[in-house]
């Protein structure tokens, strides 16, 4: 169909915010490709990291990204002594997406109340130490939460949501065609 843009739905937020559960459900409901981005500790080069993120948003069909380049700034500040491996490359990725005539990119910032994030973080960190959350310390989590809450981390269209507020966000997001 002419004029229909490919959807790039990006789910961001701190550990324990419900983004992975929501992103997986949206991907399932929409038939989108699902990509979960990890912290990539093995990648130190910003160009390589930017290429990884951009490649995941490219290609045919709709895609759901569970984390992306937006995480780099708050997680770098909290867990890597301020190291932001992307710097201005993050803006270049966003500009590429915004200028792509066939792409509609939107960020869903999952930011429930702090107590909910902290509870989920503790439960998940204790339940699975091998595949648990990215962060290890509660003060790191608070730093990341505060960054998402107070800083403008993206120039893309951003919708702030609370995945635990009782609304069926997956249905609402999947219906946003």
Structural account:
Helix content is 43%, strand content 16%. With 177 residues, the protein is an alpha/beta fold. It has a five-stranded parallel sheet, sandwiched between helices.
Large-scale geometry: globular
The largest β sheet comes out as: 5 strands, parallel
Order of helices and strands: EHEHEHHEHHEH
Task: Give the number of DSSP strands.
Answer: 5
Mean pLDDT score: 92
CATH-defined fold name: Rossmann fold
Q: How many H/I helices?
A: 7
In whole angstroms, the N-to-C terminal distance is 13 Å
- Tell me what the CATH architecture is: 3-Layer(aba) Sandwich
Q: Strand order across the biggest sheet? A: 2-3-1-4-5
Provide the structure class. Answer: alpha/beta
Proportion of strand residues: 15-25%
Identify low-pLDDT runs: none
Number of domains: 1
- Write the CATH homologous superfamily: P-loop containing nucleotide triphosphate hydrolases
Brief overview:
The chain has 177 residues and is an alpha/beta fold.
């Amino acid at each position: 169909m002419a004029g229909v843009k490919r959807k790039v739905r990006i789910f961001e937020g701190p550990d324990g915010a419900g983004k992975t559960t929501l992103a997986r459900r949206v991907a399932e409901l929409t038939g989108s490709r699902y990509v979960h981005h990890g912290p990539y500790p093995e990648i130190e080069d910003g160009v390589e990291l930017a290429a990884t993120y951009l490649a995941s948003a490219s290609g045919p069909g709709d895609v759901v990204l569970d984390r992306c380049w937006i995480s780099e700034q708050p997680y770098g500040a909290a867990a890597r002594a301020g190291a932001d491996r992307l710097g201005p490359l993050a803006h270049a990725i966003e500009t590429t997406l915004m200028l792509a005539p066939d792409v509609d990119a939107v960020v869903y910032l999952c930011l429930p109340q702090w107590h909910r994030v902290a509870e989920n973080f503790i439960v998940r960190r204790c339940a699975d130490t091998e595949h648990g959350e990215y962060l290890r310390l509660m003060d790191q989590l608070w730093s990341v939460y505060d960054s998402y809450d107070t800083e403008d981390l993206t120039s893309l269209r951003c919708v702030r949501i609370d995945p635990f507020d009782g609304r069926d966000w997956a249905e609402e997001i999947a219906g946003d065609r």
